[in-house]
Amino acid sequence: MQKMGETEDERTAQAGQLFENFAQASTCKGTLQAFSILCRQMDLDPLDYRNFYSNLKATATNWKAKALWTKLDKRANHKEYSKAKACEGMRCLIIGGGPCGLRTAIELALLGAKVVVMEKRDTFSRNNVLHLWPYTIHDLRGLGAKKFYGKFCAGAIDHISECIRQLQLMLLKVALILGVEVHVNVDFVQLLEPPENQENGETGWRAEIRPLNHPLADFEFDVVIGANGRRNTLDGFRRKEFRGKLAIAITANFVNRNTTAEAKVEEISGVAFIFNQKFFLELKEETGIDLENIVYYRDNTHYFVMTAKKQSLLDKGVIIHDYIETEKLLGQDNVNQEALLSYAREAADFGTNYQLPSLDYAVNHCNQPDVAMFDFTCMYASENAALFREKNGHQLLVALVGDSLLEPFWPMGTGCARGFLAAFDTVWMVRGWAQGRNPLEILAERESLYRLLPQTTTENISKNFDQYTIDPVTRYPNLNSSCVKPHQVRHLFIDGQQDSGLLECGGPTHRSVNLSRQESDIRPSRLLLWCQKQTQGYRGVDVTNLTSSWKNGLALCALIHRLRPELIDFDSLNEEDSAKNNQLAFDIVESEFGIQPVTTGKEMAADQDPDKLMMVLYISKLYEMFHNSPASVAGRLQSGVLCPALTPHPSHHTVQNAMSFHLLLFRTSAPPAGEGGEQNKVRSMATQLLAKFEESAAPGGAPRSKNREGFSDWLFVAPSLPMTALTTGCLFRCSLYPDLLFVCFLRQCVVRKEFPQNLGGSDTCHHCSKRVYVVERFSVEGYFFHRECFRCDVCGSTLRLGGHAYDSQLGKFYCKLHYSQRRPNHLGCFCFIGVKVIQRQLEEVGEKQRDLEERGVTIEKVLRGEAPGEQHEHELLQMWFKLVLEKNRLARYEEELVIFAQELELEDRQSRLQTDLRSRMSIDDSRKSSVELAEEQQMLTEIMEVVEKRDTLVSLLEEQRIQERAEDRDLESLVLSRGYQFHWT
């Protein structure tokens, strides 16, 4: 209503100024206050949620406001919202005003629902910088993020954006504009059921809150959504706990004075120990600070985050006493705050090469230096995403979003990205219910989508962000929204008619049984029986035990011949030449199957019988690979003929893709690009290639790489030093011969090794010359090591298969950094994030391997009579054998992780090449020299190679996921058919 004496122009100017004050408010309290003043001065009723947005648009008509209305109108015109009629009459309560809760509220408001958000705090104080995936940046820009915060995504690193506080403020303002009610300083306690014996059933579901006299105490709702973080207070959601190795993170915010000197300091999108050991070793030597990784982003503050090692924190006095319990270890009473401030400042100074002029701490909402140390060892995930409750004639849809649903692994930065996806999925469920769909069907669809959520990455969601809506089909390629059936979620409809006691418990749960596809119960007697069957009928072979029967090498050669007859000419073997027979077998098994030898041919031919434990360890690996296959099935696989009975899922194409991928991965030189053609073709080809990559479909829809001519010529080419390729094992877990996918192509791309003649015995470690027991034996390039003795000759860091290089002339091993010195110091953000995850998993695998080896050595000493023991030999042997099997599985997993790290390098390499090529293409060709044009041509060739490699991997990964899902279903059916149940404790 226009006030008396006020002209239209004055009113318009006032409305514009009030709206600008609201848009630029920098705190939660300031935003709510500015919004209240705007509504009061302009006679707008914020409780009129149906008409508030249109009334505000009519009032605020300055150009800045109009630009925002254009963006919001575009979003509101999505067909899924049905012009704000899709959820008309629906009342929704959202617990928590974090980014995911507010993003959910915005979507529900666009659907036409009445939405109320309650938040227990009245300040947004988290300065932590967020990782934003490309789609989240696109989504926030579509909501007008730039209108509220002009520096949105203006940093040097595209996919790193604002602190949580800024993001919350943006979303809060959009929510208020769309008619969402936001109440601060209100704490949710519990749900209140509709009372019994109501004559007309007027009172529905409500919430018990604090303060008790708050107006929200009388608010009745049809939908309640928990978005209050890991402390979720809604009943009915069991939580699974995922616990890893101890991980201690430190975050620090320093004052950014926005000087020229500060602007020149390079941000660090990721330095990880696995890729830059020199940096961390120098940091430790100079300062005593021992980190796993460090990141630096420049935003409103200079933001550093690092993962510190516990012993370093103890040595520097940051942690006062060492406790086993993490809560006590990082408790406030056990942390020296001054030492923590010094530790973080010193690490930040070294990480930026002392280039920041001053490192003064910013202050947090408690007016204290903004530094924090916390544990991210444990993560929680809800067992289900939603449920229905029905009581006294009133139904209630209950759902979770954000960290309440799926807590992210902190260094990966998936919180907002997966949180927003879950918000859209949840809103889609609410829409379905409002449209009259059956509750069980809605729950089944929601749980199907929830199964996808932990698997989502920037690579496997749809790339056409303009098409994103709340409809899951627009976001997930090849979506199967019915993999969970309605009868499977019957327990999530709680109406008092079934026992829902288990559901009512919301604490963390652990399985009492651990089911695994790869778990097996192999006994030495069964191993011997298998060997006897496989070698039956061969000349000179009579397997009666696991020692002397294998001495002359014929039994091992016969076993190989039965499995792969094309690999060995058994009739040409001489029974008297034991050393040659055994060495031939060891070489073939290593090059073809990726299984390392545990001894040498000469030792096998020695006077005494082969060691039983050593033979059990070695033959068990062949057994694990082939025991489910009939004779020579591997040979038929090699030739492309698969036995139908052994292939429940089409896998020939998978094998071909595996061969293609690994040949590409290990290839170090490509056929030279043709020199013909005109130089201007480079620009058109590059433009098409970059456009294709940026607009390409998600992994599920990615085109399969075709077999290319001349593929067999792309063999491993040795570098200038006589380095040799390594058998790194199979990349993917497969129920059919998990290592065979790797084996099929290995001899085509690996240079045959010539072992030195002066090798030591297999019982002696090449590095320390001490005794190495069978269970801890580690074979590389014909040498034998303790695992901890396999180290780089330059820096002394522990090496892993696939992550090392070998100089056969000098007989020395190196980490790849000190061999090539070609790794970049700073990886792309997402490459770095993935490397951090792989690094931590490699460390955990290493710890588990060391533990297994220690236990195995203890048992082995008893079996050899070198230590006293009370248990029966048969029991000890069974225990030792199980340790060996577990160690084999860990070794395969470790090899897979190393190859994944290599794939991440490809991703980072592609990103850097694309950036460089774009920069070069911005210059007109007429201004370039012939050398620059040739470099551009070479760069394009390299990009095409990388894209081709990654296309092959993407196709193979998708097929592998499909196969693993099918195997999971088969396993579940098998377990249930035998009368087993999944139990929770």
TrEMBL record:
Residues 807-973 form the BMERB domain. GO terms for cellular component: endosome; nucleus. Its EC number is 1.14.13.225. Its cofactor is FAD. One of its GO terms (molecular function) is metal ion binding. Residues 763-825 form the LIM zinc-binding domain. It is an enzyme of class 1 (oxidoreductase). It is found in: Cytoplasm; Endosome; Nucleus. It catalyses: L-methionyl-[F-actin] + NADPH + O2 + H(+) = L-methionyl-(R)-S-oxide-[F-actin] + NADP(+) + H2O. Residues 521-627 form the Calponin-homology (CH) domain. Residues 883-910 form a coiled coil. Keywords: Actin-binding, Coiled coil, Cytoplasm, Endosome, FAD, Flavoprotein, LIM domain, Metal-binding, Monooxygenase, NADP, Nucleus, Oxidoreductase, Phosphoprotein, Zinc. InterPro entries: bMERB_dom, CH_dom, CH_dom_sf, F-actin_Monoox_Mical, FAD-bd, FAD/NAD-bd_sf, Rossman_Mical, Znf_LIM. Pfam families: bMERB_dom, CH, FAD_binding_3, LIM, Rossman_Mical. SMART domains: CH, DUF3585, LIM. It comes from the Eukaryota. Its main location: cytoplasm. Belongs to the Mical family. This is F-actin monooxygenase. It comes from Esox lucius (Northern pike).
